[in-house]
Give the backbone structure.
Amino acid sequence: MRQAGRYLPEFRETRAAQDFFSTCRSPEACCELTLQPLRRFPLDAAIIFSDILVVPQALGMEVTMVPGKGPSFPEPLREEQDLERLRDPEVVASELGYVFQAITLTRQRLAGRVPLIGFAGAPWTLMTYMVEGGGSSTMAQAKRWLYQRPQASHQLLRILTDALVPYLVGQVVAGAQALQLFESHAGHLGPQLFNKFALPYIRDVAKQVKARLREAGLAPVPMIIFAKDGHFALEELAQAGYEVVGLDWTVAPKKARECVGKTVTLQGNLDPCALYASEEEIGQLVKQMLDDFGPHRYIANLGHGLYPDMDPEHVGAFVDAVHKHSRLLRQN
């Protein structure tokens, strides 16, 4: 996650020329940023360079990326009637043609070397940004909506689901070979709120995307759900219609496997900060992680994204250790 990111000097160089969302709207720039980590590391998949907040933008909201602060919505959703400002969710896919062009261009340049993963933010996570107006440590404004305006919250979450489904299907049509849905703010909801306001829409996205792909005569693609800090919902997520459940680093691999059963693939979950350790210790941590997960239905990954101050050499040590210990596991 964030394999194309500020930890790479070439990423910083490419990104210096234009603002963040202008970069997202340039298929050529997105393709270049997607391919940069693959030139450095023998990764097993590419993740298209984009951002989850292109969806609120396509719904008509202004979003800027403020250096040092992160995303900012100058006019967040404050009242129920603000939902009337949003565009029809059916037009969202047509607004995001630049993402589809980036995916097609990247698939062509990859020439079958590794598969390409597309992604989007899940409805609750997108709602938090649209209501809070940016990041938040508490999500108090978004959660206030859930308690004080439950009907309007469901209306907004439905609008977002209706926007996400054609967007994700469009990514597959453009060439994405797997899809990941990020519920980055799951941890701000306890089990009750999660089951009421997040899980139904997570399920619906998978169900509708698969149905639409079938209707269009397209082969299904694996879908990954990553609900950060959503350890309380692993059993439910395993039955939500996704082939893969992503884990953050706070979950013990063996406990996760007990929760999800044997038919779901797990992805994760090394603490990203482990990459601050020595290369030798990274190797030991990776070996422990792979031993804990075992060789079946497992994708090695970090438990969250890479941070800007991480040493690319240590990222390389992580990738190499995964490949080395994978080979040993399979031999045994």
